[in-house]
Design goal:
With 816 residues, chain A is α+β, with helices and mostly antiparallel strands. Chain A has 4 domains: 191 residues, no CATH class; 95 residues, no CATH class; 163 residues, no CATH class; 202 residues, no CATH class. Chain A is 51% helix and 16% strand. In chain A, the strands form 4 sheets. In chain A, strands 3-4-9-6-8-7 form a 6-stranded mixed β-barrel. In chain A, strands 14-15-20-17-19-18 form a 6-stranded mixed β-barrel. Chain A is elongated, with a radius of gyration of 34 Å. In chain B, strand 9 and strand 10 form a beta hairpin. Helices cover 35% and strands 25% of the residues of chain B. In chain B, the strands form 2 sheets. In chain B, strands 3, 6, 7, 8, 9, 10 and 11 form a 7-stranded mixed beta sheet that branches. A 4-stranded antiparallel beta sheet of chain B has the order 2-1-4-5, with helices on one face. Chain B has one domain: P-loop containing nucleotide triphosphate hydrolases (Rossmann fold), CATH 3.40.50.300. The radius of gyration of chain B is 18 Å and the shape is globular. In chain B, helix 3 packs across helix 4, helix 4 packs across helix 5 and helix 5 packs parallel to helix 6. The chains are: A alpha+beta (816), B alpha/beta (249). The interface between A and B is medium-sized, with 32 and 37 residues. The complex binds adenosine-5'-triphosphate (ATP) and magnesium ion.
Chain lengths: 816, 249
């Protein structure tokens, strides 16, 4: 073939493509939607799910601890950590504080609460992630009474030191002491909650059983997890035997080692969402492919006469496919580029609203990588390939004679129009499935936004302070300060009630205050969410008791009373009022007595962990003389939360809160000062984001299937123009012609919807598993979807139907 | 151009018991039944017969537009019965020129581009393509409409362009299926004169027509009925189709 022929043929096909741009616009738009949806989802999944964790040889790093509910490995006490210090086949082992807390950093003008975490040298050694600048902790700093040192996060370094290397010589003033900054964490440090790391120094002579510390270890490359798991288990078990833990707890504990990667990935809490997104994207991709196949099939059918003439003139197959290929190439390039741009813009727009915890580290943000570009090229080529395959199929199997003898008026051949109809049915059923998924997710998220949290914080303001051990060495000093603060706050007009405690439900902070409790019948109940609270707490946060009574208002009067939530009672299945629960203090420290507590009241269930999580069983423990030890165990990982119930707008009492803290505890700074309702809605923001994204998918799916419907009907009508002309010449009413088209459309749609519903029923088990609290066979959603699909499908048919109706008999019969 | 040498030429087309059946849901139509036919080089053959007797089917077999069920077809000394699609396309392009009742010009292409089209399927350089196209269009007196589009031409003009397109490739065989069927008598006459002069210049021509007068101009008229050649095929001296019908029954 001569080059000029090639070029002119390509140009010719582009010219005719642009002359009637409808097809190109539809195809380009469809392709770009498929490309962008897939790329956006892939970018999210990649950044959240597949992002590499910067820990070198991560498969050799394990977390060691007690086996908790759901077979996941929890923490261990310092004394246990000491017992596994020299495990065989383990290169290094490290420990970190149970949770990230905050410290007050005093700047020249004001004090800020900064999230901080205590880790030992071993912990950083195990991770072996190179520092951004400076160094990790050295062994001296990890010793008791060793030199002070701290490491700041990359984000903190950027924000407060402008990313300047001179940070290494500087200090931070914390709790009255100037602490030198020795290093800066890299941006991809996987534990991203803390802005400051401080050395955790355990005194081997004073370690006890308190706290659930994170222990990680790096194994030799030749060792299996099982070996290490067993070796640790043996040591920890013999420690339990030595301390007769089984007697205090009623049973022995299980220990294990688990790969750290899965634990880190679980932190992102994005599994369900990402699976839903991926499902949506996959369904959408199929709709896009069906749609594009349809469009190209129709396009090829529209060219039937042209191509029959060329074949009669002896055109070889390659030349017949050339116009299809060059058309598709244009569509592919435009669609691919448009799709990439849409994806890029969407990701830019979404970047600020995506919840940070979705991502492993600050460095893994959703982005368009080379594989996304390759994907869009691949998809475009695939679409091109489909079109060429249809083209070749048509050329191979459609007879030329019919087109040539009758001048191309006999229509497009039944096989092709059947295939077109099948594709419409397929699209409609996929759209039904996707819409159903979207409706279910929407309902789930809607339900969780409507959910009863078990308390009414609408009139309350919350904040937290972090009393340091130097100024407030024990529970008594903390309580004195907190009570004074309560009184001071309650003295303000408009403030009705003030309560404080170790946390508030829905604070969205990691809530690790769980404790085992012993029942009188010898059973142990594990992992009970527990709060230490003041007497005014329930009233201030708007929580009601179901039965029994609340705490006495004077601390001294409460000697052994606690309140449990309904959920705890349900779990045990007896009336718990006036029964006893015992805190196994003896298991924490053999010198301590177990603490028996009597249940004085039963509260309603409280969604402490967010709207779409299970209600946890809760024990509310009042601050009292014998909770001294408990508070001491918890205070490092907790802040002291205040809840202030007001008359009027809670947000307008922020100044009063700040003023009261300044008066009563001038060394302390206030964190998280905002209405309780803000805490609740910040959890819901993520839900809303999910909902929005899923609705976007559903909307795109709906419009794509309408586009598909439209193109099929439009081409069918154009194809039958002659038939309509004849019918109209024979006296058919325009309404009848229109009705015929609409009827044809609704039949395809109806079949598609039924198939989609059947598919949804088949997939309902899977769907329900991912959507907590949703009922897949929800008749209202189904009905709405059917109506929406029918309407959008029929709207797509209206223009073609109208075209059919206004066919003038003479016009189309004269047409050659 | 070759010299006129009737009856002495080698056969361009030899059909041997050619059969074509169309299978549809209700019936199998035997569109061609055991058709034997020989057309010699330089001959002008007209095919006529009642509607539905298989004329168009026969012509599309001759033009390799469709496959047949049994029998043999030898075109220019080569058996084309079992050729592949690709080889058939090459033969159509090089050896056969088509003229249809419905013209079948491509609406998106200009007159020039339409006529050039078959040549672009060969390896032929631009200058030669242009020469041939101009020559063909001169023959049909359409050289002044190079840049027009089919929609801008009358039916007769369109058919002349279609003839030019058939001629441009310099085929050994011209096939025409009711070339005047869509034209009024004046325009029909113009196209017929064109075909006559092509024949006079040595082209081999096979034309389907309903028009008895036009059929008379051929060297030989073939009558078909129900997919078969009617016996008594003669040189062009039958007076009417009715005669033939009686003869056959
Ligand atoms: N694609 C097809 N499928 C089924 N039957 C066909 C097909 N094409 C032609 N036929 C049948 O074959 C027979 C011959 O048709 P053909 O078109 O050759 O007739 P014709 O002689 O050209 O008629 P006319 O003079 O009306 O053009 C007819 O009975 C027709 O119904
Ligand atoms: Mg015919």
């Amino acid at each position: 073939m001569f080059f000029d022929v090639f070029i002119s043929e390509v140009l010719q096909s582009w010219k005719s493509l642009l002359k009637k741009p409808g097809y190109m616009m539809l195809a380009t738009m469809t392709l770009s939607m498929g490309v962008s949806a897939c790329i956006v989802v892939f970018a999210l999944v990649k950044a959240s799910f597949l992002a590499p964790i910067s820990v070198p040889n991560i498969d050799q790093v394990v977390r060691i601890g007690g086996v908790e509910r759901g077979d996941h490995v929890g923490g261990m006490a310092p004394i246990q950590f000491m017992s596994i210090n020299q495990l065989p086949n383990v290169q290094s082992i490290g420990i970190a504080a149970p949770a990230v807390t905050s410290v007050a950093v005093q700047n020249t003008d004001r004090t800020t609460l900064v999230s901080s975490w205590m880790v030992d040298k071993g912990f950083l050694d195990v991770l072996s992630i190179p520092m951004q600048i400076g160094r990790g902790f050295n062994s001296n700093e990890s010793k008791p009474n060793g030199p002070d040192a701290l490491i700041v996060s990359y984000g903190y370094w950027q924000e407060y030191f402008g990313g300047n290397a001179s940070v290494l010589g500087k200090t931070l003033l914390i709790d009255g002491a100037y602490i030198p900054i020795v290093g800066v964490l890299p941006i991809d440090f996987p534990y991203k909650e803390a802005d400051i790391l401080m050395p955790l120094a355990l005194d081997p002579d004073e370690v006890g059983w308190s706290g659930s510390f994170k222990v990680i270890a790096r194994m030799d490359s030749s060792t299996s997890i099982g070996t290490v798991s067993q070796a640790a288990g043996v040591r920890l078990h013999s420690l339990d035997v030595e301390y007769k833990i089984n007697e205090a707890l009623g049973q022995f504990r299980q220990y294990a080692a688990q790969p750290i990667e899965s634990a880190l990935r679980a932190q992102t809490r994005s599994r369900t969402v990402m699976i839903i997104f991926s499902g949506c994207a996959a369904v959408l991709l199929f709709i896009v492919l069906a749609n594009l196949s349809n469009l190209s099939l129709l396009r090829i059918m529209a060219r039937s006469h042209d191509s029959a003439v060329r074949r009669a003139l002896g055109a070889p197959l390659t030349r017949l496919l050339l116009p299809i290929a060059s058309e598709q190439l244009l569509v592919a390039v435009l669609g691919g580029v448009l799709g990439l741009s849409i994806a890029w813009i969407s990701l830019q727009l979404a970047d600020s609203v995506l919840p940070p915890y979705w991502f492993i580290s600050a460095s893994s943000r959703p982005d368009i990588g080379i594989e996304s570009i390759l994907f869009s090229i691949g998809l475009s080529l695939f679409v091109m390939f489909i079109a060429m395959a249809f083209g070749a199929w048509r050329i191979r199997y459609s007879p030329m004679k019919e087109y040539l003898v009758s001048g191309g008026r006999t229509g497009s051949g039944r096989k092709s129009s059947q295939l077109g109809r099948i594709l419409v049915v397929l699209q409609a059923s996929l759209a039904t499935l996707l819409l159903l998924m979207a409706a279910l997710s929407a309902r789930t998220f809607w339900k969780s936004s409507q959910v009863d949290y078990g308390f009414d914080g609408g009139q309350s303001l919350a904040f937290y302070i972090k009393p340091g051990r130097t100024t407030y060495p024990d529970q008594q000093t903390v309580l004195t300060m907190a009570s004074a603060l309560t009184e001071r706050l309650e003295a303000f007009p408009g403030i009705e009630r003030v309560g404080f405690g170790t946390n508030i439900p829905a604070s969205n902070t990691d809530h690790h205050d769980t404790a085992p409790f012993l029942l009188d019948d010898g059973r142990t109940i594990n992992s009970i969410t527990s709060y230490l609270i003041s007497p005014g707490y329930f009233e201030a946060i708007g929580m009601e008791l179901d039965r029994g009574r609340t705490f006495d208002t004077t601390y001294a009067a409460n000697t052994d009373s606690i309140i449990v939530s309904e959920e705890l009672e349900k779990g045990i299945q007896t009336d718990m009022l006036d029964k006893r629960l015992t805190l196994p203090f003896n298991a924490v420290n053999p010198e301590w007595e177990n603490l028996p507590l009597t249940i004085r009241g039963v509260s309603k269930g409280v969604r402490a962990h967010g709207p779409n999580r299970q209600l946890p069983p809760i024990v509310w423990i009042p601050f009292m003389a014998n909770t001294e030890k408990l508070y001491d165990l918890w205070r490092d990982s907790d802040s002291l939360w205040f809840v202030v119930k007001v008359k009027g707008d809670p947000a307008s009492f922020q100044d009063e809160a700040l003023k009261a803290v300044r008066d009563i505890a001038p060394t302390l700074s206030v964190g998280g000062l905002q209405p309780v309702s803000e805490y609740q809605s910040s959890i819901l923001n993520t839900q809303q984001l999910n909902l929005t994204l899923i609705l976007v998918f559903a909307g795109v799916a709906l419009s794509l299937s309408s586009i598909g419907m439209y193109s099929v009907m439009a081409v069918t009508v154009a194809d039958k123009k002659h038939e309509f002309g004849v019918k109209s010449a024979l006296g058919a009413q325009p309404g009848k012609l229109m009705g015929d088209v609409l009827k044809g459309g609704s039949i395809s749609l109806g079949i598609g919807i039924v198939l989609g519903l059947l598919a949804a029923v088949a997939a309902s088990n899977t769907i329900e598993r991912f959507l907590y609290g949703a009922d897949a066979a929800d008749p209202i959603s189904v009905l709405i979807i059917i109506v929406v699909l029918m309407i959008s499908g029929l709207i797509a048919c209206i223009k073609p139907a109208y075209e059919a109706a206004k066919t003038k008999p003479m016009q189309s019969l004269r047409m050659e | 151009m070759k010299s006129v040498n009737m009856n002495s030429g080698s056969p361009v087309i030899t059909l041997n018991k050619l059969c074509k059946v169309f299978h549809t849901e209700e019936v199998d139509t035997y569109a061609l039944q055991d058709v034997d036919l020989e057309i010699k080089q330089g001959e002008f053959v007209a095919i006529t017969g009642p509607s539905g007797c298989g004329k168009s089917t026969l012509l599309s077999m001759l033009g390799l537009l469709d496959t047949f069920n049994s029998g043999n077809y030898i075109l220019n000394g080569r058996d084309v019965s079992d050729l592949r699609l690709r080889e058939l396309a090459v033969i159509r392009n090089h050896e056969i020129g088509f003229i249809f009742q419905a013209f079948n010009l491509i609406a998106d292409l200009s007159v020039e581009a339409n006529v050039t089209l078959p040549l672009t399927y060969r390896n032929m350089d631009k200058a030669e393509r242009r020469d041939r196209v101009l020559h063909a269009l001169e023959l049909v007196k359409m050289e002044h409409r190079l840049k027009h589009y089919p929609g801008q031409l009358s039916g007769g003009q369109q058919q002349r362009v279609a003839v030019a397109r058939a001629l441009a490739g310099d085929p050994k065989l011209l096939l025409a299926d009711e070339p005047t069927g869509n034209l009024d008598s004046k325009n029909g006459e113009v196209v017929m004169e064109l075909l006559d002069s092509l024949h006079a210049n040595g082209s081999t021509l096979c034309m389907v027509t309903h028009d008895v007068d036009f059929a008379q101009r051929a060297d030989r008229v073939i009558y078909m009925k129900d997919g078969q050649m009617v016996k008594g095929e003669t040189s062009a001296n039958a007076t009417s189709l009715e005669d033939v019908g009686e003869l056959a029954s």
